[in-house]
Amino acid sequence: MRRLRNVARAVQELDPAQPDFRDRFLVLQEQAATALGGDGGRKGNPYLAEARRRAGAKRGAEAEERRNKLRPIIAKLREEGFSSYRQIAEALDARGIKPLHADRWSAETVRNIERK
After folding, report:
1. b/e per residue, 66-79, with b = 16+ CB within 10 A?
2. Positions of the region Disordered (predicted)?
3. CA 19 distance to own-chain centroid
4. How distant, in Å, are the alpha carbons of 49, 55, 67 from that of 58?
5. Where in the chain are the domains?
6. How many angstroms separate the CA atoms of 97 and 99, rounded?
7. End-to-end alpha-carbon separation of the chain, Å?
8. Chain segment 35-46, per-residue pLDDT in tens
């Protein structure tokens, strides 16, 4: 922290009118980053990209598992005479099978499950 205070003090003493102001400021900025731990004091997860990739893969796997469970149910409904996506969506609602991210089934959701 002492190094950072010294850098801050040096920045305050800089005179913007001097021709080498920008160069000296950049040097002090670099020293401040070093004083903060070399990475400029960035906060948060240093492995954020990897964490996002893993989360996306997990969500994708969970969605695929859910689609695999629903496909036989949809196929059975088709055998029972439900021919349109809307009819299947209404039948799923009537049977109490809840969609993952909505209150009711939509024809588009049923279509997406069948196509993927």
Report:
1. ebeebeeebeebee
2. 36-66
3. 45
4. 14, 5, 14
5. 2-35, 48-115
6. 7
7. 55
8. 676 555 566 777
